[in-house]
Amino acid sequence: MKKLKLWALALVCALFAPVKADEGMWLLQLMQEQNLADRMKAQGLKIGVDDIYSPNHVALKDAVGIFGRGCTGEIISPDGLILTNHHCGYDAIQQHSSVEHDYLTDGFWAKSRSEELPTPGLTFKFVERIVDVTEQVNEDIKEGKVTELNSFGSEYLKKLADEALKKSDLKGKPGISTLALPFYQGNKFYLFFIKTYSDVRMVAAPPSSIGKFGGETDNWMWPRHTGDFSMFRIYADKNGDPAPYSAENVPLKVKKHLAISLRGLQEGDYAMIMGFPGSTSRYLTQSEVKLRMDGTNTPRIQVREARQEVLRKEMAASDKVRIQYASKFASSSNYWKNSIGMNKAIVDNRVLETKAEQEANFAKFAKEKNNADYASVVGKIDEYVTRVTPLAKQLTYFTETFRSGIEFGATYLIFDNLKTALEKNKKKDIEKALEQLKEGYANVHNKDYDHEVDRKVAKVLIPLYAKSVPADALPAFYETIKTKFNGDYNAYIDALYDTSIFSNQKNFDAFVANPTLEAINTDLAVQYSTAKNEMMKKLYEAYDKACGDIDLLHKTYVRGLCEMYAPTPKAPDANFTIRLTYGNVKSYDPKDGVHYKYYTTLKGVMEKEDPNNPEFVVPAKLKELYATKNYGRYALPNGEMPTCFLTTNDITGGNSGSPVMNGNGELIGAAFDGNWESLSGDINFDNNLQRCIAVDIRYVLFIVEKLGGCKNLIDEMTIVE
């Protein structure tokens, strides 16, 4: 293939005219260049683009950040109060919960700062600065400092980011780090300066009967009545700098927080969302969409469904297990259902046909341009898909089974230092390695792990994996099952979970009292983990080899598509960097004879109530508030209590918790889901069907004040009546 030309993408993707739809997760740093202001103002934006993002002064961007590992949060008070989704805070809520203090069931409400709970491991990250480094990357390629293919790689990008920090005025500042990433499949590169706060405390969370109302049944569905919110607070040292948890830390005095509007919303009102969408794949070819369906979604659905069936039964039978596995189950279930919905929506919304039409148009464009790279690129991508499809299926089955599914057995690396010490017979090294091993045992048998539940999961997933992949994708322990256990999976798994060093405290203590190489080498868990990791390495190496130069092919294809569509804008795929999407409050018609209005009310919660279904239980206090219509200033003009609403904003995973703002930049809700009919939206945006589901800020404040009794939190917010 000819060496790809290193064009600046601004030549072809930043010549923007007004867009016809709401599609686009737009880069804040390009809003001026792309002339987005006219389109946004035509739809109802009343503030300036500089008020949304500016490299020179404080703007709305400075009130939005990354909450935890994969969500968005926004600052809603001068004292660092964070609003995000309940499902984003779920790990923290679960972490603090026990049978004695079941915050998952009962909710949590801090009536004072002293009651706010430190949450180890939880962080909040602000984007301090964004820098275009495309020219530097292209120059490094030109000078031979990095190959074009390796310019996408984490090693080069980390070096680029580290060097930028060393030269920056932010060098040495507390909490500052840098991150360099490719955009438009490597046609552009940006560097982000991030400030991370690590003392984040839990402030408020409704009971799951509100925060997760509707459960699996309502997930990705409309109409929705879920109070999907939680609140946390950033703490800092006395200088306002990031610092580890300390009793001396104080609430962060933020440079920007969002005002909250109680004015309400009407059909057609302007709505914009700022957040960190995780991943989209809008530039896939038709064959790559099929790969997503068959190589990722279908195996994921099958394995997660089997595991979740086990967890459902065990969680229903024990409050202890329910609390232990609540977060794990929610995480698994979310993208299990998403995968089901995506495959269905791809068919229903004729995504494959749309992609085929685009490729036909692209072929004509390539011919008109007399561009050999453009003319051949789709065919080469199709060849790549043929190579990787079987490997992609195997990898998905493997990761879903042995990385996301079964928890026990990830122990063999922990024994390496001990094996070396035993071989050299060095007493001090043996003692040190045994201390490390004790930490490893505690990590395996943590408070959120149940050995018997995991055993039952293994008895379902280990046979399922064997049925789903070819023989050469089976880890070596399957041969042990065949030869030493006569093919009896249950017998092998029982031996693995009963007799191994890490199986229980008794076995572990016996080994620590007399550690030997023979005990390690013959241990079933060590053998299992070793075989599992050897197979993982083999599968990833085969997959990487089959991928070849696919990154460069995507780079060519995306550059060509941007040329073909110019001057119509094409936003880059999401990659968990800060983006803006704008649209309107809007109803939709999912199918013939069906109309979904743009909002729901508390009345719908009562209509869905089912005391015999844990997904639809309604708290007694909420029913009392409904019966007495005790809604305070948060009710609609007709006296009803709003719960959720719809907008046409373009969002995806990672946007969970993102602020939904009106034309004045005031907070009107928090995004938490997409609708079932448009779950192919990560691949192909459909302006007629694509909807964002948000919890109404009035419902949030109503629950905080009237049900949670936290007037103290309301009083610190800036509220516009």
Automatic annotation (TrEMBL):
Keyword Oxidoreductase: no
UniProt-recorded Gene Ontology molecular function terms: dipeptidyl-peptidase activity; serine-type aminopeptidase activity
Pfam families given in the database record: Peptidase_S46
Protease listed as a keyword: yes
Enzyme class (EC, first level): hydrolase
BP GO terms, sorted: peptide catabolic process; proteolysis
Family named by the database record: Belongs to the peptidase S46 family.
Protein EC: 3.4.14.-
InterPro entries: Pep_S46, Peptidase_S1_PA, Peptidase_S1_PA_chymotrypsin
Record's keyword terms, sorted: Aminopeptidase, Hydrolase, Protease, Serine protease, Signal
PANTHER family: PERIPLASMIC PEPTIDASE SUBFAMILY S1B
Signal sequence extent: 1-21
The protein's name: Dipeptidyl-peptidase
Function: Catalyzes the removal of dipeptides from the N-terminus of oligopeptides.
